[in-house]
Amino acid sequence: MQAELIDHIRFTAVSPDMVKRMSVAKIIVPDTYNDDGYPIDGGLIDQRLGVIDPGLKCKTCGGRAKVCPGHFGHIELVRPVIHPEFAKTIYLLLQSTCKDCHRILLNEKQIGDLRPTIEGFVRADDNDKELGLQTSVESEDKNLSIIKKLKTVKKCPYCGAVQGKLKLDRPTFFYMNGNRLKSDEIHDWLAKISNEDLALLGIDGTVTRPEWFVISYLLVPPVNVRPSITLESGERSEDDLTHKLVDIIRTNQRLEQDIDAGAPQIIIDDLWELLQYQVTTYFNNETPGVPVARHRSTRPLKTLAQRLKGKEGRLRYNLSGKRVNFSARTVITPDNYISMDELGVPQKMAEVLTVPFYVTKWNIEYAKKLLSNTSYPTVLNHISKDGTRKRVADMNREELLAALQPGDILDRQLIDGDVVLFNRQPTLHRISINAHIVRVLPGNTFRVHLASVTPYNADFDGDEMNMHVPQTLEAQAEARLLMNISTSIVSPRNGLPVVVALEDMLIGAYELTKDGAYYQKDEAARLLASVGVYELPKPSKDGMYSGKDIFSAILRDDLNFEYTDKKNPNNMAVIKNGRLVKGYISSKLIGKRGMLLLHIYDKYGPEEAKRFLNDVSKLAGRAVYTFGMSISMRDYYISSLEGERQKIISNTLSEASELLRKYKDGTLEPLPGYTKKQTYELEVFATLNIARSIAMKVILDSLTIDNKAMLMISADARGNILNFVQIGMFLGQQSVRGGRPSRGYNGRILPYFTRKDSNPMNKGFVKSNYIEGLGFIDYYMHAMGARDSAMGKPLVTAVSGYLMRRLVNAMQDFYVGNDLSVRDAGGALIETLYGGDGIDPMMEKMQ
Amino acid sequence: MASNYDLVPEHELLSESDAKKISKKFNTPLEKFPKILESDPQAVKLKATAGQLIAIHRDDDGKKYVAYRYVVKG
């Protein structure tokens, strides 16, 4: 079907006449159902407005629920009210026209000057060219500046009437010289402005008359828009809009009665104002300056504007975002025995999710086998060549099987080897969505290889992830070829590996390949068997097998690689013809920034890099399993360093008191731009902070990797030296807002200190550590620092989330064309050369 | 004036025939190029009028490339 071309769209205000033409029912009763539970005629659920209950027929179109689209009704207001969303326009119009003759407050000459820009305006309306559009924006600006000046005109150039001072009391009240202008007066005023004058103000009077901004016929939306819900108790609960409409009709009725009874003007005006309030909140219950209309339960009513607005509004929630078919979500758990690019899918999911299977003469035998299966890998739906869709059941299986022919499509259950997309929110990256190959497994969780966790920024403390099953062959091919996670091994951000060996894999690789690691034949055989190698390498000395040789089994024979640590040239690894001849496998090779991994990816491609990572994780995993890797409190309890600890602390404290002495003597040189006091504070803070760095150094120098905590740290598997210092030595200086904690009581932080005491301990220098435990003052200081750093996090995520939203919306359909230019969906040039240099950082070679 | 500033890259007003060549090179009508206002200090300096094309010669750390701006009213 060819879509009709839209020539133009015009938005106008709805006229009272239009309301009457649209309306199928005048609503007069402020109620919904009568005592029998039957809709009241002339009530808000009048059956002429459409039906939502099954079984009933619409009195307008005769359709039943779901067939009848619903029809509008209307309420006749006895006194007109201002449409709150147009109040600003009304204000502008009142300011620009004479209070007596209602002509525009411009003389003939000024109008003549305006004409050309108005004509530009009209030209744009004719949908001319792009140039016309620009003129219209321009002329609109120009017009606005002229109109803004009109409120300063004191005397009408036509009738000479002196203009009063107009005031808009938001949202809907107008005053002239302090006297309230009533809505009907405003209506009459607006009605008398001529179309010619309106044109000068940018309004086409033949399309939208300003008096329509004052409502006397209120449109009532069909019941389909505001369905009532029946609770289990049989009680009916009405939609917020219905509630609001009831309020409007009730107020309208009271107003009518009082007018008929000849009530005093004040009472009528009060009710009129109440009616205005009801209508204002009906449109927008968050109108500034108006009290919020509430439900009986004090919950604010969700009226028209609230339905559309914001994240949970119609636009962002229902139109920009929709629920997705062929998708699944559950908790993720680790599994290093599947391939890095596989995804363990729970059996239950695989049984529900389907992939279309196109029957051809070449695969019809397999199709028949699938279709004849009564359990798991079977077919859920059958779509025959002519498009009729049937659910496959035991009842009709034989029949469908007999009729199966090329051209049919089967909805087949998900099986091993299918391709799926896998995603974790927040999707900040293109590598937050990757393709994986299905591996159906028992259990209820998605099984994820540890190495493929980094691009998603996932962990296993309860994270859930989403899976999508591409349905078309094109989508499947794209997923397989372009989106496989092995293509994300190298980050598109900087060309460095992100999908890498981590944690246990790193420790295992180190233990396996370190100098002096030799294994008995049986151990070596088991290690090699874990990666499917069933031939032993040559034994080295006395029948033992070197760990380096075992690791070499997973290296390609033609691999040559050399790595030298820039900081420590003694630390190097050499691979010659697929054999690790020198050094050990560290995170520098296979972890973050792992150069060996990058080399393999560059030289042999993603497939081989994937295979390598899989083998590393299996082999190293097996290695850790063999040696065992445990840590205990004892690893952190370093009594041998107690002397060092005391020395560091006392040195630091004496340095601090030396600074204090200098400060008091006045010999402390102030830093440029700082007072002496600030300089002192900065330097003390720096000095106290350095204590931790010194402690780190001491630990690094005095502990070896015999200490398992140190092993983890040096293998880049888990933890850092700062953690070690804080657990085993001392916490060090706590910081609040980038300095020492300083607020609290007068001249001190806690009441336990004397005023103006310079003791660093009283300002957040903590001597104790996590092992020996914190005293209550230390604990308090630590809590202050912890709170300070915790406060920043949610703020940063909220800000970056919003930034992400803005960027995605701004750039969502930009693409890089074949000529490397960046364009938007309309083909307009954004950049002549991507990034100014046409370079894809992912493809850039690191030096 | 800003146009004399060090970091402002060189702007060049292209002739109509050159502009046509560029348009053809990118296979894109001139209106679909990024835009520059007539009132932009650089456009004023070059006395550019709406409909013309300005080339900006950028030099990013020795890497040279040219960006284009289509002059519009304003």
Can you tag this structure with a few keywords?
heterodimer, A: 847 residues, alpha+beta, Dna Ligase, domain 1, six-stranded mixed β-barrel, four-stranded antiparallel beta sheet, 26 helices, B: 74 residues, Eukaryotic RPB6 RNA polymerase subunit, four-stranded mixed beta sheet, 2 helices, 4 strands
- The number of distinct helices of chain A, counting runs of at least 4 residues, comes to 26
Looking at how many chains there are and whether they match, the oligomeric state comes to heterodimer
Side-by-side strand order of the widest sheet of chain B: 1-3-4-2
Total tally of structural domains of chain B: 1
What's the CATH topology label of chain B? Eukaryotic RPB6 RNA polymerase subunit
CATH class category of chain B? Alpha Beta
User: Level of helix content of chain B?
Assistant: 10-25%
Question: What's the CATH class of the domain at 633-779 in chain A, please?
Answer: Mainly Alpha
CATH-defined architecture of chain B: Alpha-Beta Complex
Structural Rg of chain A: 39 Å
Strand content of chain B: 25-35%
Order of helices and strands of chain B: EHEHEE
Structural category of chain B:
alpha+beta
Write up this protein.
The complex is a heterodimer of chains A (847) and B (74). Chain A is an alpha+beta fold. In chain A, 38% of the residues lie in helices and 13% in strands. Among the domains of chain A are: 132 residues, no CATH class; 96 residues, no CATH class; 59 residues, Dna Ligase, domain 1, CATH 3.30.1490.180; 124 residues, Orthogonal Bundle (Enzyme I, Chain A, domain 2), CATH 1.10.274; 147 residues, Topoisomerase I, Chain A, domain 4 (Orthogonal Bundle), CATH 1.10.132.30. Chain A has 26 helices and 27 strands. Chain A has a six-stranded mixed β-barrel with strand order 8-16-9-15-14-17. In chain A, strands 10-13-11-12 form a four-stranded antiparallel beta sheet. Chain A has a three-stranded antiparallel beta sheet with strand order 2-3-4. The longest helix of chain A has 36 residues. About 2% of the residues of chain A have low confidence. Chain B has 74 residues and is α+β, with helices and mostly antiparallel strands. Chain B has a four-stranded mixed beta sheet. Chains A and B meet through helix 4 and strand 27 of A and strand 4 of B.
